[in-house]
Records
---
Amino acid sequence: MNSEKKKLKIPLPSVPPDLIAIVCVITSVLLFVTGYYVPVAAELKTFVFACCVVLTSYDVIIDTVTKGIKERAFNENLLVIIAAVIAFLIGKSAEGAAVMIIFSAGKVAHRKYVERSAKVIENLIDLRPEVVNAVINGAIVQMSPGKIKAGDTISVSPGELVSLDGVVINGQSDIYASCLEGEAMRVTVTEGSEVRSGSVNLTGVLNIRVTADFDHSTISRILKIVENAVTQKSVAEKMIRRFARLFAPAAVAAALIIGVAVPLLAGLSMSVWLSRALGFLAVFNPAGLIAATALTYFACIGGAALKGILFKSANVVDNVANTTSVIFDKTGTLTDGKYEIIDINAYGIPDKRLLMLAAYAELNSNHPIARSIVAAASAMPDFTRVSDYREFAGKGAEVEIDGNVVSAGNALFLTELGITPDISQSEASVVYIAVNGKYAGRILLSDAVKPDAKKAVKDLHAMGIDRIAVFTGETKEVAAAVATQLDIKEFYAECLPGDKITRLKGLLEMQLAGDKLLFVGDGLDDAQVLQMADAGVTIGGFHSDEAILSADMLVMTDEPSKIASAITLARYANKISRQNIMLFFGVKGLILLLMLLGIATLWVAVLADACLTMLAVVNAMRAYGLTNKEIRQFLPKKKKEEVDMASE
Ligand code: ADP
Ligand code: MG
């Protein structure tokens, strides 16, 4: 079978295969215990400990050679090896071996955690479309999804995964919008409905005209976002790494001074001071903190993805965590954008005719108001009759039909055309229509606030977000009505697309240092605003290419309340990362002090480093925002499924 597996592969740090590392660590622990407790000659003991070092160090050495050369700097691995070598030189071979064993055990544990996190994310997005049924000249041909192009037709049977984005051209069915949306949503689709890849077809056979090839389908784009997100380092991690890179050579130099120069110059015991120097190196080992910080953001991004929130990078997590202002676009973000006609006031022509004229004017517009008017028209407008179509962003549209010019848009639009509409003061959205420059009437529409929007605002208030505001191109009356319904104090109405940019600039300038502004839109015509905001977020529905490029975070459901969830998750990760940094600096600082005073020994430093790393890594795992049981649910159960499939 021609199969195209598109599976997410989270890149893992280059550590040798698990099993070998685990076997080496266990063997060396056994050797170490034997060497330590069995009374044999000192030379033999040293030999046994040396074996431990060799067993545990091969991956550290590989790492040092590859990374050390690549990063052209000292790193944490080198510190450990130097520490072990010094230990052997001063006859403290047991300590040297212990340092190495603890270090590599920590690495194995860390790798296990990272692997587990990667599996969770991989499994979440384990939508491996292998073949699709292409309809070619009426016959069904099995093809790899990569071979299908936009415009081709595919057939999807009940129970199958929809592997490419498209529009239903034939059939009716219920589908589960995929787990990419957090919780699966059951929706009915029929001719003309858009279907996203990653959905599962449930009840009927669907023929779908593909609108994007596989690389541009929703599945592939989302895989790419998550893949990229988890490989990017957070600000915290970058800072610690830079710190480590600067400090490793300094620590080695300091250790040499403490261990060699001081005893030589002051005539003190070399072995006492060398062992202090060793402890000093153990204290400066930043490996645990780096690992824990990376893991914190990794877990946060993975956990959020499970909830249908896609952070594009660890940086975005930080920005979202520090959000103090949330600005919502109105249409399609707080409201559903599905406008219903509530009244038609036509002048001198029947209402139906006015609606039909408006539908012609709006035929080519993607504005939610336009789509709703076209949908509401009694008959399907005839494309062939219209010509000379023009759209005026944030205002309206104009078209020529059978030699007549029909204009439809807001009051500003008609006024600019020199027409005086009878302005409605109502809370409805109004489209004014003119034919050949003469006012012809108005259509009043309204769209509903999303069921989840109230909770969204309430949650944001509860978490102490100072500023919550609405941007809209609609009238003050409409904006005020929505704001009141949702308990939002601040709104900016009648914004032309350019106004939104200027407004946002103003708000950004007013912010205090460190405060972040989050803008939420539906990704239609707001790319610039999304880019300008500290964190640009798009929610719901189909994310356009433009939105995916310009947004920093994507919410896969239609729920504005996911913004509050995202802030909570990000703050949590941020807090955990800070806790770990404080923990490391606090405890290590204390040990350093105790060591300088001669109270703490090398053993204390080594053990403390191991314990701290464990603590920090376990702490990092909390950033998932999931319980262990929930995490387990997302771990692969593939073995069983494969057995099931084979037995079918
Ligand atoms: P928003 O998304 O905030 O509503 P837009 O800039 O998309 O803002 O639109 C602003 C206003 O311009 C709309 O509320 C509507 O009144 C009017 N408008 C824009 N495009 C059209 C159109 N194609 N038909 C009718 N009115 C339109
Ligand atoms: Mg808009």
---
Amino acid sequence: MKKLFIVGNWKSNKTTEETKEWLQAVSLLQLPVSSETEKETIVCLPYTLLPTVKSFVEEKQLALKLGVEDFSAFDAGAHTGEEPPELLKEYIQYAIIGHSERRNDLAETDELIAKKIAAAQKYNITPILCVQGKETPVPDGVTIVAYEPIFAIGTGHPATPENAEEVAKFIKEKHGVPYVLYGGSVTPEDVHGFTELSSIDGVLVGGASLDAEKFVKLIEAA
Ligand code: PGA
């Protein structure tokens, strides 16, 4: 059975009230379970929303795992404004690392990203490493890579399935990564065109994960 990861990336969005509405809607719509594929649904959230989402998921026993969109490369201690994995691990199992928005807006380097990957591994958090193409370095031991070409992010113009398959296959062969996801303008309408590909093991979804109905539809269609 093929395992698929459906990962929502909320970026800088949603208040606690809006999050409660999203959770309520998702629990009523019900996250789909499939007999043909094993689907793991993850939402990567702003730090402020982690306690709310964690308690709701536990109370309602939703099939939803939690992640963050980044964390600090420092350990806990005197680092004003930083959020280290050691303190986040009580909430999360996953962390997006190296998103192109952080590489571009915050000048994150491959070196810093490698440090964060090592920190994730130290605290038993599974990093979802974002790569922008075949040239992006992939540190040893990474198990989930998300191929996110910059032209496709938030533009409504996804990569072609042919391009996603070619790059995913290359990454698997070159780096021995077991799971490669595709991300960039994924919608309920086009998701299956990616998840049906033999080298694609799921999707990283920004915009379409913010709307509960759209997100559930997307998981169903994957
Ligand atoms: P998008 O974002 O789905 O809104 O294009 C994807 C991402 O940046 O993770």
